[in-house]
Amino acid sequence: MKRLSPKLTQTLAYIFIITSTLIVILPILGVLFLIIKRGLPAINWEFLTQMPKMGMKAGGIFPAIVGTFYLIIGTLIFSLPLGVLAAIYLVEYARENIFTRIIKLSIVNLAGIPSIVYGLFGLGLFVIFLHFGTSILAGSLTLAIMSIPVVVTATKEALESVPDSFREVSLSLGATKWQTIRHAVLPYALPGIITGTILSLSRAAGETAPILFTVAAFYLPRLPRSIFDQVMALPYHLYVISTQVPNMPLKLSYGTALVLLGLVLFLNLWAVIIRTHFRKKKKW
Amino acid sequence: MKKIKEFLVENSIRLSGIIIILVVILIFIFLFKNAIALFQSYSLKEFLTGKQWYPISEPPKFGIVPLLLGSLLVTVGASIISIPLGISCAVFISEIAPQFLKDTLKALIELLAAIPSVVLGFVGMVTLVPFIRSVFNLPTGLTALSGSIMLALMAMPTIVSIAEDALNAVPKAYKEGAYALGATKWQVIHRVILPAAFPGLVAAIMLGIGRVIGETMAVMMITGNAARIPHSFLEPVRTMTATIAAEMGETVRGDLHYFALFAIGLVLFLITFFINLIADIALNRSRR
Fold first, then answer.
1. A134-144: per-residue pLDDT in tens?
2. CATH dotted code for B53-287
């Protein structure tokens, strides 16, 4: 058999590569198009602000929106301080020793744990062992632990991108280590930290598996009264109405999917805006 | 005063590092503690080699084999689809596309990563499942094939972005040397860039597979959830993740079924732990 000429091989390879790229990209556009086109007709003021009615077959999704909002706030409260402090430790304090390596390995490992396993852990530790019950508190803690690797990784990158000369100047002026970090490093790493945190929250907002047994309520047409209450949440609500309720009007599922997708993409958009804005302002 | 503040801050920072290690240990302990409770009255051998998963029959049977095979089947299917497509897409973005297309494609891939799995599961349910059903003329479109296709899509952001990083990290001098010798662009990609980026590509594939094995909601919604040993891609299957998600709500706290689901969780934890370990080693090697 004659070998193909390099030119022809290149053309064939390019055809394969471009076709593959199209096969990857087109479904993404298709999913977006479908959700927006079929979801928009379902969205109106009543859908966004009313309680569900008639076993969820009518009315709105207000409690699910509020529930997801509470979970985002709860996740933020627990994941931000822990994630940022741990990253500061790794970048500014840690020496290359066994303790540091174990922390790094733990973060890699946390990032890879399946979300349903986080759900099991949350059930075992927060719901049962600590007696929080299925509650906003238990759900937020579970989601926060799942978010920590993202916050740590983003903060680490942001801190590492601040030049060492900033630290050296501050230290040479007699500032302590913490003063240096607080005034000469953190302000410049802040945009990166915010971007990473928003992205982690957007992911937490869309997760279903970790909240299945820790907080999510199947049908609860009222707002939560305390952090020990269950709540409905958008992703779980979408799962419930599209698989567990017979004869559910598809329109409501599409509407819920669009609200969830809109929320998640809105958060991501902010992250991107903050990132590009500060990248332009960066002077070093 | 300043000294005290410095001391407090430094220690709370160190404490946060310790908490992260503690969390991983706690996750393992809680899975292990609950899983081990199963094996006090159910044999480990039967759990690992049993071919039947009948958690509510009398006596119950907790054989993990059908679930393991279910996870394996959709993972293999998703890998066959997503690895060539994902690597090709990364090559296109990193080596071939003009700058504006590069940015657009990267933004789209990032957008795909942001779509919640339950939304993708829902879209799969209303589009892919009826499609598979009518194309193959099946009684149901809820099959391992549907799951594989959807999971391949969900693994794409991980594979493409990490593979693209690996391709970008190949030193320019390598390419320039090959061009100077008269190689075509494809020869450079095929003979120089891909081999040089190999460890990074391995990491991309491993992390993509890790994502596929751990995926729960979309899989539960479109694979049919039949807990029996699958014989082809056109049959319903049930994965380990879907089993936990679907059955935990029906268990009574502290009964055998409850512990059996934790045992599955432990198996998942260990599998993903090793996959991530391999990926991490590959990533460290590629950075060198």
1. 999 999 999 99
2. 1.10.3720.10
- Closest Cβ–Cβ partner in A9, A112, A145 for B23: A145
**Residue B130 corresponds to which amino acid?**
P
b/e string for B201-218 if b means 16 or more Cβ within 10 A?
A: bbbbbbbbbbbbbbbbbb
pLDDT digits (tens, 9 = 90+) for A225-280: 888 999 999 999 999 999 888 888 888 999 999 999 999 999 999 998 988 888 77
Give the range of the structural domain holding residue A265, as residue numbers without chain letter: 65-281
B176 touching A, CB under 8 A? no
> What token pair was written down for A100?
């540091």
pLDDT of residue B166: 93
Q: So what's the pLDDT on residue A193?
A: 93
Asked whether the beta carbons of residue A257 and residue B123 sit closer than 8 angstroms, the reply is yes
Would you say residue A58 lies in a domain? no
Q: Suggest the residue from B29, B38, B122, B258 to mutate for an interface test with chain A (most A CBs closer than 10 A).
A: B122
Average pLDDT of the segment spanning A19-48: 94
Whether A272 is covered by a domain: the verdict is: yes
Asked if residue A128 belongs to a domain, the reply is yes
- The domains of chain B are located at 2-38, 53-287
Amino acid at A254: Y
pLDDT at A1 over 60: no
Burial of B145 (0-12, 13-18, 19+ CB in 10 A): buried
